[in-house]
Design goal:
The protein has about 120 residues and is of the alpha+beta class. About 35% of the residues lie in helices and about 25% in strands. About 15% of the residues are buried.
Length: about 120
């Protein structure tokens, strides 16, 4: 899997194409395999707006809202498991054909959620 230079959080999956992996358990961690990539630095939104939305919503909710409204990414379940310790997880591949459009759609989604939270 090689990363894009313009979008270093993108990688390739032979079955699902260009995108990134998300884990239900680790999506909101700031690092690690399966966490939401750091896309904030590539957004034009004020960091305070992103932070306010992130305090109220997980990245998974924001992503699902964006996919439902714009369809600029696809979420495919790639793994579900439970181990003998009781730990279980679901992992998705988020396919992104046009990263610039998807980032714009994510910004619109975050802005909409931010505006709604101020009312």
């Amino acid at each position: 899997m090689s990363a894009s230079t313009e979008y270093p959080w993108l990688s390739k999956n032979s079955k699902y194409g260009q995108g990134f992996r998300l884990s239900r358990t680790y999506v909101d961690d700031d690092f690690g395999y399966g966490s939401m990539p750091d896309i904030s630095s590539q957004m034009e939104l004020e960091p305070a707006a992103i932070q306010a939305v992130r305090e109220k919503y997980s990245w998974l909710v924001i992503l699902d809202e964006c996919i439902a409204e714009f369809g600029s990414a696809q979420k495919s379940t790639i793994e579900e498991f439970a181990d003998c310790t009781g730990f279980s997880d679901v992992c998705w591949w988020i396919s992104v054909d046009d990263p610039a459009k998807w980032l714009g759609d994510m910004q619109k989604t975050i802005q909409r959620l931010y505006d709604a939270s101020k009312q």
